[in-house]
From TrEMBL:
Domain named Clu: residues: 330-574
Protein name: Clustered mitochondria protein homolog
Subunit structure: May associate with the eukaryotic translation initiation factor 3 (eIF-3) complex.
Coiled coil: none
UniProt cross-references to SMART domains, sorted A to Z: TPR
Length: 1291
């Protein structure tokens, strides 16, 4: 832990980030309101300190909090623009040195008027190295880094390109981003790339380590630390000595070594290298200022270093000649690892396990303790995940020597950077009876999930090893921190494990010391204490599954390992598909349709859902008993209502944890809430529910009592499996059918939705079968696409697993040709360099034999076995090629070159053709329906390769090996979420729901500050909290704050989740909505246009939720008084709606109602009357003549018919109130799309049943309105409308 001060190199801490964004308020971690949350932290104060400096500007003021560490104050000073040059110093107060690691409140005599003095320290070699690295970064001399892990353009953001592309900025008020938009144009891949950036100004030619480095022994004695070489913009070259006292120009040349100071007039020295460079180069100060201005034009969030999360790597990247990815000469690139971690390279070696466990043992009494502990945990997990992923890639590429080289490939183990690696395959036969390699692969994935849940529960005295699973080129690697004592040879008679099964269930250990911690764990995971039997038939009572093992480390800590079976087996599935133990068929895959393994466990979310269900039954039963005992029935009736509403609202929090295991903590809060309400009524603690995770796993009880107990346990598990099939699956399908929840757009969002609902991915086949009819066609297509892409991942993995690295691109491109290019070339040939093959005589080149037919057959078999679903005969003809390519690339980690891939011989509607209608756009625009012509010309000039020149004459194969530019690892990790930040967020939400707005907003800000402090700014959880808060602020009418937060949400999710991730798309839609509400309508349309372009790539055109989006855009166009264009958008929205919901649906009626008004505005009164009549007829048929919607439509119909003439005159005035009329541009507008699978109710906190309602005004008002007599009130604020009106659940 001594290295704490290295954890945050400059520019990394959340603290620093906050300073840069809020320079006027230099508090490091905005923990202003911590007092509210902590309660016991009443002593916190914020005050200003003066710091005296040795050089100009001689003194600065900074805002600090008494709770901050001096270390954070140092960080603020290092990052303020005026004091960038300091990095090696200490602070003094009244002449006494202050320790960096104490809190400000602990400094004796320090008050708000105190003055601190900054004193420059002598350098050490390490300080000198880090100072050089920092100065190189500050002055922009650090070139591009070729990173072994993150891939091309990782962590990139398109936000600046999207805002920069707004044509209205050049003053033409006529064009808006949507003019001439083509709804039918196919998706364009170029939308996923940022525009070519102009290069930042150069401040020096180069700054690097000198060839004379390191100093010889006798000079090290004299305080020489490093020798550097500087070439200024003027072309002068200087040799510089880094000395304990600072930096000076020495007398060395390239051929002569003389590291002592130069004499005057050329003598220059300074304590900081930055100051020295500015003295030596006359042009430096001006160019450094330009560089800072250049950096300031960029969105700071888009340039911050990502320290606490894995940056996302896009699957489409520019080709190698693009200015975005140019490779520059930079000698210091190779020296950087020396500069960062020293000659011995040992400074970066960390004892991961000790760090994890000692962080877990930190105190968590006060809020301050918890913030510190969670912040450290977040950073530690991020560092470990990165180290483990880097190691896994090296192991997969064969760069690390195994510890047991004589074993078979799959059984080899490795240690690199203090991480222990093994393959996620059954190398030693542990899983032979469960399904071999397949079972081992699944077990590692489930283990990560289990470790994450245990980390989230944070049980005192129970420890887990750091665990990461990395999929790379068909290999699955598991990286674990090394648990002390795991390799220890035990004495004869001692077991290798202290609790749980040893050596494949034959021996069972049950060390009493583990009972207390395992009991807490099992209670939280709803696992039943149960009996298991070893091979001697001896019965042991275990708290957890027999597979979950406890190990007493040599450090005395209790570790829990192998968490892949914390929930019971899905017996319904196993019996149905021949993998149940004792079933008729063996599991080694003898039958073509048997599921490939036995690791089919239920999801923890299912256990939670079933627990809630059972609890509701139990409470209702108790109430029933009480009803019979009591005469007055009023109170219990009230309880029942509370009970049923108390448990479901939990979904609103799940917004941020879609797909995360929501863990037992959330369940406990529900319990607490329920028990609060029912204190005097029902004692919930009497309700006991737990499942036996070893049911159906082949246990053999001996006595009758034991047999009876096991039969009961098995029945309970069976009922849980039935609950999944009878309740959860149909519920999900009907929710999506009714359009009450956000609709998934791609495989990722579909998987998260299923997981959140407790449904395993293996049920995709069942979902595809249930998704019948027009309305669920999108769901069916998505499910099939997801099954195909997962099957392809398994097929590709089989061929790639043992293939030498240089042959992998050929293999991938050939398989992609067989999958997606068969229309273009039905007999693709693998393009392999013969010379390469001769280097690897042992390589298995079976993939060359693959043809489109054989690949389809393999995919069909995989889908039949894994999802128990039979594809239609010609399934490949209905698959969407671009979307499937994206899914496959994301699953395999491919980074493909951006070009137009030809999937068939039919002349595609090329992007060049579709440019014609877009010419209204400015050339710079990264057009949604095709790039504008100018940028396409540039592109052609740039790409010489014939394949990349876009034309209708397609190359003979869709993909060539050169298209696969890189492969990035796909990482599964186990970092817990911050419970503190989530508690504050939840408390803020609840306060706002209870109408305590002021308190609610304070809590929300507090939660935001905690999220930023704990996770750092650039982190997916922070993006989600920005998103939730922007929505809440929007509802509280704080428009500007909503826009600012939504913008941050967009950038952070682009950088951490992906530029085309479903959440990023939804963030763009929200940003557009809020931007429009605060008057930035043109900008809002740019965002929406970008989102629609993303939609075409992610899903294809006509996604059910895009009805809302297109509708919103139509309303915005009306706002710009472009009535004709807006009418076209309403028509487009109606067309999709009729496709999805049917022509006679209420949703279609709502849209017809709006379209009629739009037509009236566009002076087409005849069409308006017809549309309104259609709308009225649907309402009449569906809702009856007395429904208020029917009446509303009827009155409008009369008015439109009578006032055809006056409408033509006055309709323009309707514009002012237009937004009020639109059912969907209200608070609920894109809100129900907030997260895939989230209900409108969870999004707005309102009842989704009352979703109709068209216009909130009375008919009299409308009459005045249409006749134009109501002009006085026409400047009504847009976007504020009857909150109940969400307009036809058009979700």
């Amino acid at each position: 832990m001594a290295d704490l001060n290295d954890v945050e190199t400059p520019g990394e801490s959340a603290a620093g980030a906050q300073n840069l964004t809020e320079a006027d308020h230099a508090t490091t971690n905005g923990d202003v309101q911590e007092t509210d949350v902590g309660g016991d932290q009443g002593s916190e104060t914020i005050f200003q300190l003066t710091v005296h400096l040795p050089h100009d500007p001689k003194k600065i003021q900074i805002m600090v909090s008494s709770q901050e560490a001096i270390h954070d104050v140092r960080q603020s000073i290092i990052e303020l623009p005026g004091t960038l040059q300091y990095s090696c110093f200490h602070l003094e107060h009244n002449g006494e040195r202050i320790n960096d690691f104490i809190q400000i409140s602990e400094v004796k005599g320090l008050t708000s008027n105190s003055e601190l003095t900054l004193v420059e320290d002598p350098y050490t070699e390490k300080e000198a190295r880090l100072h050089s690295v920092r100065v190189r970064e500050l002055i922009g001399a650090a070139g591009d880094r070729t990173d072994t892990l993150h891939g091309l353009l990782s962590g990139t953001s398109l936000h600046d390109s999207v805002t920069g592309a707004d044509p209205t900025q050049n003053g033409s008020s006529a064009a808006h981003p949507m003019s001439g938009y083509d709804f039918e144009a196919p998706g364009v891949l170029s939308i996923l790339l940022p525009e070519n950036q102009e290069q930042p100004p150069k401040t020096v030619k180069s700054i690097s380590v000198s060839p004379w480095n390191p100093p010889p022994y006798h000079l090290r004695q004299k305080g020489h630390l490093l020798y550097l070489l500087l070439t200024t913009n003027e072309g002068e070259q200087y040799q510089i000595t880094s000395h304990v006292s600072g930096f000076y120009v020495n007398k060395s040349t390239n051929s002569k070594f003389d590291p002592f100071p130069r004499g005057p007039p050329k003598a220059q020295s300074a304590h900081s290298l930055l100051t020295l460079v500015s003295k030596l180069s006359p042009s430096f100060n001006a160019s450094f200022q330009k560089l800072q201005d250049f950096n300031n034009t960029k969105e700071p969030l888009a340039t911050f270093q990502i320290t606490n999360a894995t940056p996302s790597s896009p699957w489409i990247v520019p080709n190698s000649t693009s200015p975005l990815t140019t490779h520059q000469a930079d000698i210091t690139r190779t020296q950087e690892s020396f500069l960062i971690s020293g000659i011995e390279n040992t400074e970066t070696l960390r004892d991961w396990n000790e760090e994890f466990q000692s962080t877990r043992e930190l105190p968590k009494e006060t809020v301050q303790d918890r913030v510190f502990r969670e912040r450290l945990t977040s950073k530690l997990f991020a560092d470990y995940n990165e180290a483990a992923a880097r190691g896994a890639i090296l192991v997969a590429r064969g760069e690390v020597a195994p510890l047991n080289p004589t074993e078979s490939k799959d059984a080899q183990i490795f240690v690199y950077n203090n991480v222990f690696f093994s393959f996620g395959a059954d190398g030693v036969g542990t899983f032979a009876s469960e399904g071999g390699d397949e079972a081992a692969r699944v077990a590692t994935g489930k283990d990560v999930l289990g470790v994450r849940m245990v980390n989230q529960l944070d049980i005192e005295g129970l420890f887990t090893p750091g665990t990461v699973v990395v999929d790379y080129l068909g290999k699955r690697l598991v990286g674990q921190s090394i648990v002390p004592g795991i390799f220890k040879q035990r004495e004869p008679g001692e077991n290798q494990i202290d609790y749980g099964a040893v050596d494949g269930k034959e021996v069972v250990a049950a060390d009493e010391r583990f009972v207390s911690v395992f009991e807490k764990l099992s209670k939280a995971l709803k696992v039943k204490k149960h009996a298991v039997w070893d091979k001697e038939g001896v019965c042991h009572l275990l708290e957890g599954s027999v597979e979950t093992k406890g190990l007493l480390g040599t450090d005395g800590r209790k570790y829990v390992l192998d968490l892949y079976r914390i929930t019971p087996l899905d017996i319904s599935w196993m019996e149905e598909y021949g993998t149940a133990i004792g079933g008729p068929e063996p599991v080694n895959g003898s039958s073509a349709t048997t599921y490939p393994h036995r690791m089919t466990v239920l999801r923890p979310e299912l256990v939670d859902a079933y627990w809630k269900f059972k609890m509701r039954e139990w409470v209702n039963g108790e109430l029933e008993k009480r009803r019979q005992n009591q005469t007055e029935t009023t109170e219990p009736a009230k309880t029942l209502e509370i009970e049923s509403t108390e448990i479901p609202p939990h979904d609103s929090k799940d917004e941020q944890e879609v797909g995360e295991a929501s863990g037992a903590d959330s369940t406990l809060t529900v319990l607490e809430k329920t028990s609060d309400f029912d204190k005097e009524r029902i004692d919930v603690s009497n309700f006991i529910f737990a499942l036996n995770p070893d049911a159906f796993s082949g246990q053999e009880p001996r006595t009758d009592a034991e047999k009876e107990q096991l039969a009961k346990d098995e029945q309970e598990v069976r009922l849980a499996c039935e609950f999944l099939r009878a309740n959860l699956l149909p519920e999900l399908v009907s929710d999506l059918k009714e359009g009450d929840v956000g609709f998934p757009m791609d495989g990722q969002s579909l998987s998260r939705l299923l997981h959140k609902r407790g449904i395993n991915i293996r049920y995709l086949g069942k979902i595809a079968t249930l998704a019948e009819g027009k309305r669920l066609e999108s769901l069916r297509t998505l499910s099939i696409q997801e099954m195909v892409s997962r099957a392809f991942k398994h097929v590709a993995g089989k061929y790639l697993r043992y293939l030498p690295i240089p042959l992998t691109a050929a293999c991938i491109s050939h398989l992609l040709n067989c999958l997606l290019g068969a229309d273009l070339n039905p007999k693709p040939k693998a393009e392999i360099d013969e010379a390469m093959i001769s280097l690897y005589p042992e390589a298995g080149l079976d993939f060359q034999k693959m043809s489109p037919e054989s690949l389809r057959e393999e995919i069909e078999n995989q889908i039949l076995r894994r999802f128990q679903y039979t594809l239609e005969k010609t399934w490949w003809s209905i698959i969407k090629p671009l979307q499937l390519l994206r899914e496959v690339s994301l699953k395999l980690g491919l980074q493909l070159e951006m070009k137009e891939y030809c999937f068939s011989t039919r002349p595609v509607k090329s992007h060049v053709e579709s440019v014609a209608p877009v010419n209204g756009l400015v050339a710079k625009e990264n057009g949604v329906n095709g790039q504008s012509t100018n940028s396409k010309k540039k592109k052609k000039a740039r790409d010489g390769s014939p394949a990349s020149v876009v034309s209708n004459v397609c190359s003979p194969q869709t993909f060539s090996p050169d298209d696969v530019l890189n492969i990035v690892p796909v990482i599964k990790e186990a970092s817990p979420r911050s419970s503190l930040a989530e508690e504050a967020l939840e408390a803020g939400r609840i306060s706002i729901m209870q109408n305590q707005k002021k308190l609610g907003q304070e809590l929300l800000l507090e939660s935001l500050s905690l999220h930023e402090q704990i996770y750092g700014i650039i982190h997916p959880e922070v993006a989600r909290v920005y998103n939730s808060l922007s929505m809440l602020y929007y509802q509280l009418e704080e428009k500007e704050a909503a826009v600012e937060l939504a913008r941050k949400a967009v950038i952070v999710s682009e950088r951490t989740l992906g530029v085309d991730h479903a959440e990023t798309l939804l963030s763009y839609l929200n940003l557009g909505l809020f931007g429009h509400a605060s008057g930035e309508t043109r900008m809002a349309l740019s965002y929406i246009k970008h989102a629609l372009g993303l939609w075409k790539v992610i899903y294809g055109p006509n996604h059910p939720d895009s009805i809302t989006t297109i509708n919103n855009a139509a309303v915005m166009l009306q706002h710009l008084k472009d009535y004709h264009e807006s009418r076209l958008w309403f028509e487009a929205s109606l067309k999709i709606c009729e496709d999805v919901y049917g022509k006679q649906s209420i949703n279609a009626a709502t849209l017809l109602f709006q379209l009629a008004q739009a037509l009236a505005l566009d002076q087409d009164s005849k069409a308006a009357v017809n549309r309104m009549r259609e709308s009225y007829n649907i309402f009449l048929n569906e809702l009856g003549p007395n429904d208020k919607n029917t009446k509303e439509a009827e009155s409008w119909l009369e008015q439109l018919t009578q006032n055809a003439v006056s409408i033509a005159k006055h309709a323009k005035d309707v514009q002012a109130r237009r937004i009020k009329v639109s059912p969907r541009v209200t608070l609920g507008q894109t809100h129900p799309q907030l997260q895939v699978g989230q209900t409108a109710q969870a999004a707005t906190g309102r009842d989704p049943r009352n979703t109709m309602g068209l216009d909130s005004r009375s008919i009299d008002e409308l009459l005045k309105f249409i006749e134009g007599t109501d002009q006085a009130t026409k400047k009504k604020r847009p976007g504020r409308s009857n909150p109940k009106r969400r307009g036809g659940a058009v979700s």
